[in-house]
Amino acid sequence: MKIGEQLRAVRISMKLTQEQVAEDIHVSRQTISNWENNRSYPDIISVIKLSDLYNISLDQLLKGDQDMIKHLNESTDIVSSNKKLIIISLANVFLFLFMILCNKMIASNTIVMGCVMIAAVLCMTTLFYQIIRKF
Questions:
Q1: Per-residue pLDDT tens over the stretch 27-37
Q2: Own/partner long-range contacts of 49-57 (Cβ < 8 Å, ≥24 apart)
Q3: What are the structural domain ranges in the chain?
Q4: Cα(116)–Cα(119) distance, integer angstroms
Q5: Is 33:58 a contact under the CB 8 Å cutoff?
Q6: Cα dist from 27 to 31, 33, 73, 76, 84, whole Å
Q7: pTM over 0.70
Q8: Closest by alpha carbon to 29, among 43, 15, 18?
Q9: For the segment 53-101, what is each residue's pLDDT rounded down to a tens digit?
Q10: In this structure, are residues 28 and 3 in contact, taking their beta carbons and an 8 Å threshold?
Q11: Burial, 113: exposed, middle or buried (Cβ in 10 Å; 0-12, 13-18, 19+)?
């Protein structure tokens, strides 16, 4: 059973409204609706609060919904996220050093200049994307 279906069933069996649940765990009613309709997943803190509120174990709440487990794994994998950020940051530093050290060669060859500019834009875009994902 998907976690959204399970959350709705437990909430209804406890005779609670989405508004009441939202107030108890400090989120909006729309957030509860999105979770119950499988449009989004709760974060790990919210899952713990829901488990406490509904008086069901985390194991019972999470088992059976592989998508939710995958979402939690991805959102809590700090090592992988930091590794990507470090690699992209190093690529930006090396590209910057290359541009400084080889500025005469880059300036005299339009093809090399174009390639370096494309690489710079891709590196910076990837870096900003990784930084934004952390928030």
A1: 999 999 999 99
A2: 49/24, 49/25, 50/7, 50/21, 50/25, 53/21, 53/24, 53/25, 54/7, 54/10, 54/11, 54/14, 56/10
A3: 3-75, 78-134
A4: 5
A5: no
A6: 6, 11, 22, 20, 31
A7: no
A8: 18
A9: 999 888 877 776 677 777 777 766 666 667 888 888 898 899 889 888 8
A10: no
A11: middle
Contact 9, 15 (CB under 8 A): no
8 Cβ contact list (under 8 Å, min separation 6): 36
Nearest to 116 by CA among 134, 96, 135: 96
Which amino acid is residue 29, in one-letter code?
R
As its CATH architecture, domain 3-75 has Orthogonal Bundle (1.10)
**Tokens 């909006």 correspond to what residue?**
28
Give residue for tokens 């930006």.
92
- What are 9's two structure tokens? 């069933």
